[in-house]
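@channel sequence for tomorrow's demo:
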Amino acid sequence: MRVTSKGQVTIPIEIREKAGILPNMDVEFEIIKDRVFLKKAKKQPRRGKDLIKQMRGRGTVRMTTDEIMALTREE
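structure tokens (generated this afternoon):
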């Protein structure tokens, strides 16, 4: 494995799957003597918060909650 000039390295899929490392997951590095260990971060951000962050301010139609609920319930 080679480290890029930006300090990046590709983790092989077999290792990611065994470790349970998914795309956009935070990881931590730990150095013990002359070895570097990679592990999942203790606290992972919740996916819902990321989705809300991406969607905030994207609505183009002004509707009340009741109007939206009526549409979803086909009233």
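heads up for whoever presents: Residues 14 and 20 are 10 Å apart (CA to CA).
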